[in-house]
Amino acid sequence: MTHRLPEWMLRAFSKLRLARYVRDARGNALVAGRLYWWNVEASAALYGSLHCLELALRNAVHGQLALAYQRDDWWTVAPLSPNGRRLVAKGRSKCERRGLVPAPPDGIVTELTFGFWASLVSGGSGYDRSFWVPTVHKAFPYYSGRRDVLYDGLWSLVLLRNRIMHHEPIHHRDLAADHAKIYRMIGYLDPELAKEAQAMDRFPDVLAGKGATLRGSRPSRF
């Protein structure tokens, strides 16, 4: 029943993309359209908390590593994996394309991805011994659990963030659990930030309104 969606919608977003929503709406094209817009609204509502997590993680980990290596460009001497070095080189190239030559450390830090910073909590490539044990654990002063549990939580949010930024469906996920996890991770870094961000967060209202949106009694807003 994909063809029953408005032609402008099919033209703008493609039959292939919308077919997933039609399937999830059990063939009801009207509900599928509402579900599509609710997915956009939910993605937009999660952006703020993910923004807070990514920047707080970046600055906390970078700060600890710069202190440990006594240099802002700590990646030049730290035992990064080949993929880590590739991401740093990519960040440097982006800075240089913008005319920042040589690329300043702060510029490279800004270009490094959420996934890069989360990877420094992983155990791969010996990161547990070279980064976590001596230094990176200090970036999480309010966490006392296992490194692998923390990493799994962070990495699941990297994947969620990537789905949102690539405009993929998230409506089928346990978004209440995802949302709680975001704030749990922020709280490990900075409880005050978590409190301030939650006070501005509209996602709980968006989630609570999903049923009404699909029934057509509540329009999506983003």
What tags apply to this protein structure?
222 residues, mainly alpha, elongated
Describe the structure.
By secondary structure, the chain is mainly α. The protein has one domain. The protein contains twelve helices and no strands. It has helices spanning 7-13, 15-24, 29-69, 82-97, 105-111, 114-119, 127-132, 147-165, 175-189, 191-200, 203-208, 210-215. Helix 3 runs parallel beside helix 9, helix 4 packs across helix 5 and helix 8 packs across helix 9. The longest helix is centred in the first third of the chain and has 41 residues, at 29-69. It starts with 6 loop residues before the first helix and ends in a 7-residue tail after the last helix. This is Abi family protein. It comes from Streptomyces graminearus.
Spell out the blueprint of helices and strands.
Layout: H1 7-13, H2 15-24, H3 29-69, H4 82-97, H5 105-111, H6 114-119, H7 127-132, H8 147-165, H9 175-189, H10 191-200, H11 203-208, H12 210-215
Helix pairs in contact: 2-3, 3-8, 3-9, 4-5, 8-9, 9-10
**SSE series:** HHHHHHHHHHHH
Ends apart, CA distance between termini: 27 Å
Radius of gyration: 20 Å
Total domain count: 1
What does the main sheet amount to? none
Average residue pLDDT: 96
Secondary structure: helix percent: 55-70%
User: Helices and strands: which structural class?
Assistant: mainly alpha
Protein name: Abi family protein
